[in-house]
Design a protein that fits this description.
Elements: E1 9-10, H1 21-27, H2 29-32, H3 44-63, E2 71-74, H4 77-92, E3 98-102, H5 107-118, E4 122-126, H6 136-142, E5 147-151, H7 165-174, E6 178-182, E7 201-205, E8 216-220, H8 248-266, H9 273-286, E9 290-292, E10 303-308, H10 313-320, E11 324-325, H11 341-345, H12 350-353, E12 356-360, H13 367-384
Parallel strand pairs: 1-11, 3-4, 3-5, 5-6, 6-7
Antiparallel strand pairs: 2-8, 7-8, 9-10, 10-12
């Protein structure tokens, strides 16, 4: 380990991931050589682009064991969540206007549901316990004859806590209602098989799995497209579900990233993240005056969320960010000074939430990076915490 190491060590993989070099190389020809519009299939340049999009759709579908026609390309999971939630509400509100989610969902879900609530929807926001888990019995009791959609994420973006995906699907099937899952943080990191699960809609983004920003997908189970009203109209692209000229280079990159992720899942490459995460986590817990948020439940292998006590949270994050790229919560909420809604829902005080740090590592994280982080964190905490004085 180089004691003079000064570069920023990246530990914010939940915010975004670096684009793999082979992903970039796959994209490049579609900017300058094969630049046709994928809808212009009456000549070769357009046909080449359409063929590339079809191949990427197959690669993305394979990653989650879907059929190609069940994949709709979007600009990312935020758009996908809007398409799914608004689309189901508009298409199915004659059947009922009740939607169910929980208080720790991503803002892309919560803000969308709050908007629908203002225009007539009845939305239930389920509580979570101090680990960030929903109560399945409460979910079951909340479902009624007006319920048309349950929106619950696969894994939380701040804590890594994994919801009981299979059990939620069973409840929805039993009650004949649709189950939508924001799986942005999970796809490509843990195995997801939509064909052998009971999820109806699943959203995710390329940039969380070493692909380009600005592209994502919605999986819509075969037979459910009529239950979703398109939210972007003007040409009938993507089987009428999402109009607009396709971003061919980004879609090609998404496909390559999905192919890479599938190979890594098959080889269990992500297993190396658990000991690295645990090494960092065990050190931090061993320091005392800290709390692991979301502990003792199933979590993603690369995320740890730690509250530090007896310290100024703003000064802590500012000091850490000189050496470590870490965050205090969701990247989409970082511009806001509000306390993390996820931690608040878990019963964590505003003061403690403000001194809480999310560490999320990835496939380029090394043991040297963990050692470097440990040394820096130890020194920063020593300098910021008030000295114990004898009386």
């Amino acid at each position: 380990m180089d004691a003079n190491k000064t570069q920023l060590v990246y530990m914010d993989y939940n915010a975004t991931t670096p684009c793999d070099r082979d992903v970039v190389n796959e994209m490049l020809p579609y900017f300058t050589q094969m630049y046709g519009n994928a809808a212009s299939i009456h000549y070769d340049l357009g046909w080449y682009s359409k063929t590339a999009v079809d191949n990427a759709r197959k690669q993305v579908a394979n990653l989650i064991n879907a059929d190609q026609l069940e994949i709709i390309f979007t600009s990312g999971a935020t758009e996908g969540n809007n398409l799914a939630i608004r689309g189901v509400y508009e298409a199915c509100k004659s059947k009922g206007n009740h939607l169910i989610t929980c208080k720790t969902e991503h803002k892309a879900t919560l803000d969308t549901l709050e908007h629908l609530q203002r225009i007539g929807a009845n939305v239930t926001f389920l509580d979570v316990d101090d680990r960030g888990m929903i109560n399945l019995d409460e979910l079951g009791k909340t479902i009624n004859k007006e319920t048309i959609l349950v929106c619950l994420m696969y894994a939380n973006n701040e804590t890594g806590v994994i919801h009981p995906f299979a059990e939620i699907g069973e409840l929805c099937k039993k009650n004949k209602i649709m189950f939508m899952c924001d799986a942005t943080q999970a796809v490509g990191k843990v195995p997801i098989d939509v064909k052998n699960s009971l999820v109806d809609i699943l959203t995710f983004s390329a940039h969380k799995m070493y692909g380009p920003k600005g592209v994502g997908a919605v999986f819509i189970k075969d037979g459910h497209k009529t239950d979703i009203m398109p939210q972007i109209t003007g040409g009938g692209h993507e089987n009428g579900m999402r109009s607009g000229t396709l971003n061919v280079p980004a879609i090609v990159g998404f496909g390559k990233a999905a192919e890479n992720a599938m190979k890594e899942l098959e080889s269990n490459a992500n297993s190396k993240l658990v000991p690295l995460r645990n090494q960092l986590e065990d050190f931090l817990i061993g320091l005392g005056e800290v709390k692991l948020n979301g502990g003792n439940v199933k979590r993603l292998p690369h995320v740890t969320n730690i509250s530090f006590f007896n310290i100024d949270g703003k000064r802590l994050l500012k000091s850490l960010n000189k050496f470590l790229a870490v965050s205090s919560g969701s990247a989409c909420s970082s511009a806001s000074l509000d306390t993390s809604h996820v931690l608040k829902a878990m019963g964590i005080s505003s003061e403690t939430a403000q001194s809480t740090i999310r560490f999320s590592i990835g496939k380029y994280t090394t043991e040297d990076d963990i050692d470097f982080a440990i040394n820096k964190i130890k020194g920063i905490l020593a300098s910021l915490r008030p000295m114990n004085t004898k009386t």
